[in-house]
């Protein structure tokens, strides 16, 4: 049946709902192969239809349907992967962990870099002068300036903007300014204790 | 509001849906994207997967060289009048060009519609097709004799079951969930999940935990997966 491989690609994405599976280059190549074969057959039938035999027109329609279906599967595969990469920027920050990077193909890595650049340029353009607004911070309305945090992963030394060096050992409690630790909490290194 | 939305949604042609949905749901979500609309859009993973369902059709014309579509016959060509199980994505085009006569899948036929009319809440919609509403919507858009009846029936069913779903989602604990949603199809399960999320958010707000910063969702699941890999 037509477009089996295309649907398999999509099912791969459906199974992995909250992470990015490795880019299935083989799958994509197979789908493109199938599309090429269908298109060539269609060309042959269409040219014979032009020549006079008009009985092949329905086959042309059906193969065209299959071509459109394959195209839709491929486009949806690529689009949904890009959407997930965009989400990764907001959850992980601008640097991705190595094992996620291994699942991204080269053009997607380029997309990620460009997306970072666009986001940074937009954030810089918001204030006047040299003030830039970090949109990835303060995702929930802040209630106080300083928060109590507990370190859940060993991190080592962390330097705050005022110059204080804080040693983040496992299970140590600290009282730190909210803006400094928001990124670390999002990455799972610290835990907000209320 | 949900009922009005559904009525508009089911009565319009597919290409008009975008206009309606933008009136109801203009909010940009947390990441600056338009929310994943509940509409069969071109890129929707669910829509692609659900259209792979096989439906039985009868060919009105003979189709040369595509005998492979019919698994039972060994012909090179597809004979006129042969009954084939086609995947649903082929059906709209072929139906419009009058190449096939399409038989409505049995769950959307008159007797099943009458069952739904009698009592919608008890019906196991997951067994009737995990994508009952979506597929029904696609089928009804094919301009069949029964189209309007199918649309009305889908609309009425969801309306009847909606209260039950809302009730369950606001009052269920984490553990009972699996056997509560066993009867629901995918659309209803999404509604259920949204209801549960809103209830949990409300409880969090009451406990004054809504300003607590959490680990980002993807980061947490990434860690869990890495931990699982390392231990295995």
UniProtKB/TrEMBL annotation, chain A:
Coiled coil: none
InterPro entries from the UniProt entry: GINS_A, GINS_bundle-like_dom_sf, GINS_Psf1, PSF1_C
Annotated GO biological process: DNA strand elongation involved in mitotic DNA replication
GO cellular component: GINS complex
Nucleus is among the record's keywords: yes
Record domain DNA replication complex GINS protein PSF1 C-terminal: where: 143-193
A Pfam entry, by short name: PSF1_C
Keywords: Chromosome, DNA replication, Nucleus
Subunit structure: Component of the GINS complex.
Physiological role: Required for correct functioning of the GINS complex, a complex that plays an essential role in the initiation of DNA replication, and progression of DNA replication forks. GINS complex seems to bind preferentially to single-stranded DNA. Required for correct functioning of the GINS complex, a complex that plays an essential role in the initiation of DNA replication, and progression of DNA replication forks. GINS complex is a core component of CDC45-MCM-GINS (CMG) helicase, the molecular machine that unwinds template DNA during replication, and around which the replisome is built.
Similarity comment: family membership: Belongs to the GINS1/PSF1 family.
Official protein name in the record: DNA replication complex GINS protein PSF1
Taxonomic lineage of the native organism: Eukaryota, Metazoa, Ecdysozoa, Arthropoda, Crustacea
Automatic annotation (TrEMBL), chain B:
GO terms of biological process kind: mitotic DNA replication initiation
InterPro entries (UniProt xref): GINS_A, GINS_bundle-like_dom_sf, GINS_Psf3, GINS_Psf3_sf, PSF3_N
Residue ranges annotated for the DNA replication complex GINS protein PSF3 N-terminal domain, each copy included: 43-94
SUPFAM superfamilies, per database record: GINS helical bundle-like, PriA/YqbF domain
Alphabetized UniProt keyword annotations: DNA replication, Nucleus
Pfam families, per database record: PSF3_N (PF22466), Sld5 (PF05916)
Localization per record: Nucleus
Domain GINS subunit: start-end pairs: 108-206
Gene Ontology CC terms, in alphabetical order: GINS complex
PANTHER family: DNA REPLICATION COMPLEX GINS PROTEIN PSF3
Subunit structure: Component of the GINS complex.
Family per record: Belongs to the GINS3/PSF3 family.
Known role: The GINS complex plays an essential role in the initiation of DNA replication.
UniProt-recorded name of the protein: DNA replication complex GINS protein PSF3
Organism: Daphnia sinensis
